[in-house]
Amino acid sequence: MTETPMVGSLAAETLPAPGGKLVDLPITPIRIAVLTVSDTRDEESDTSGMILAERIVAAGHACPGRAIVADDITAIRAQVRAWIAGGDVDAIITTGGTGLTGRDVTPEALEPLFDKRIDGFSVIFHTVSYQTIGLSTLQSRATAGIIDGVFVFCLPGSNGAVRDGWDNVIRWQLDSRHRPCNMVELMPRLLEV
Asked: What is the pTM of this model?
């Protein structure tokens, strides 16, 4: 058996994503904020936000902002717009508010702000999620897009959904070493006219 070369703490081998692999280069760290959307969670009980923040840093990125807002369109938009206007984030991941109840309004808050929608994200997220929770994935409206040159990913609020979304999808597309392509290499061109 041949030994697999190491890249940081990860082996340079085929990843769980189809056709994906890491190349033996240093990672380009990016800045990823985490927004928890919930009427009931606080800093202590926000386990999904904590999981995301820990995984972001463990992957070699910075987490310059973490906040909790109520399931309210105005509050969600205000926090996302503030982070984007501040220029301190390259991506934002939200957790919560993507379900089917009346209070679940994260897609309604953010999709109208998308300059471009990343349609494939929802498809891939649901494919991954189906492997974990089966048809219950239908109850999620996970979505993603780009707002003023910043990637925005909206995940459900459960710890399992956050793990599925980050570990199996988002992490690899926000890793500059991922091939055949990744979203980090697109960042300098997102605001092209």
From this structure: 0.90
